[in-house]
Amino acid sequence: MAISAADVKKLRDQTGAGMMDCKVALEEANGNFEDATTILRKKGLASAAKKAGRATSEGLIGYRLSGDASTGTLVEVNCESDFVARTEDFQQLIKDVLDAIDKAGSAATPEWLKDPAGPVQQRVAATIGKLGENMAVPRFARFTGQGFVGQYIHLGGKIGVQIEFGGVTPAVAARDEFKTLVKELAMQVAAASPAYVSRTSVPAEALEKERAIYRAQMENSGKPANVIDKIVEGKLGSYYSQVVLPDQPSIRDPKMTVAQVLSAANKELGAPVSVTRFVRLKVGEGAQ
Fold first, then answer.
1. Alpha carbon distance 206, 86 (integer Å)
2. Residues 131, 31, 2, 127: what is their CA dihedral angle, to the nearest 10 degrees?
């Protein structure tokens, strides 16, 4: 049967596949759009499988924040080259992945993300088929309904930070001082890469590993065990200042800790604002 140019364009708009691929698929499917889409998907998945072993260390961090700042999403979308990362097709892929996460809501899990039959992997496969590079969506972070969410995107989309605050009323959220605090702490996470939101959230095994290292360093010191224990606990303070956000020196004023910056901001705001969680995504760290 004759396939019109309008039909080819319609299928291309729906699938993102090339014009000739769409024409061939429609001819093979006798003009049936659903069957033609299935044919293109199969070809896209075959194309994706052939490229699956190629490194995906480039890409961008996609981001989306609701108008009331109650829901925020970051997603890492990888490709092989920075050139492809800047194309309109790749930008559209990021938008579509964010749409899929929004639509899935609480059902959006790491398993859902990696499901070959799921919306994200199907969409990635179609873009691989169109652009000819391997791509991956290794991880995302979605905060919703538990506090005020702030975001910061660094290095043109190579690093994304999402940080959630508790104790924020609409009046506090509207204050310039609070907006400054959100940006400052998000930049802190981007620059200093803390791992934990508080000392109590550091896993016990991580602390024991550090203690074992410090004890080994003191092994031949000749000091009594109780003295060594005190020294070891003192050394943990240095560890906390590296990995725990409130214990880190502020990037704005290294003479202050982040906890002190937050305390000063709380006095200015007249509100008990706290950081409840954060995430930092850097392109390539989660690449497959």
1. 39
2. 0
Distance, first Cα to last Cα, the chain: 43
Give residue 229's pLDDT: 87
State how beta strands 71-79 and 274-282 pair.
Answer: unpaired
Ordered alpha helix ranges (H), the chain: 5-15, 19-28, 33-51, 82-85, 88-104, 110-114, 119-131, 170-173, 176-192, 204-217, 225-243, 258-269
Q: Which residues contact 148 (CB under 8 A, 6 or more apart)?
A: 69, 70, 164, 165, 166, 168, 173, 182
76-114 burial, b at 16+ Cβ within 10 Å, e below that, comes to bbbbbeeebbebeebeebbebbbebbeebeeebeeeebe
Q: What is the pLDDT of residue 47?
A: 60
CA distance linking residue 138 with residue 287, whole number of Å: 6
How far is residue 101's CA from residue 244's CA, in Å, rounded to a whole number?
29
pTM listed for this prediction: 0.79
Tokens 């496969």 correspond to what residue?
Answer: 125
**Three-state DSSP class for 36?**
helix
Tell me, what's the pLDDT at 246?
98
pLDDT (tens digit per residue) in 262-275: 999 999 999 999 99
Q: What's the rounded Cα separation, in Å, for the pair 281 and 66?
A: 19
Q: Are strands 148-154 and 274-282 parallel, antiparallel or unpaired?
A: unpaired
Domains in the chain: ranges and CATH = 5-51 (1.10.8.10), 58-196+272-282 (3.30.479.20), 199-256 (1.10.286.20)
Counting other chains too, the contacts that 112-117 makes at CB distance below 8 Å and 24 or more residues apart are 113/137, 113/139, 113/140, 116/45
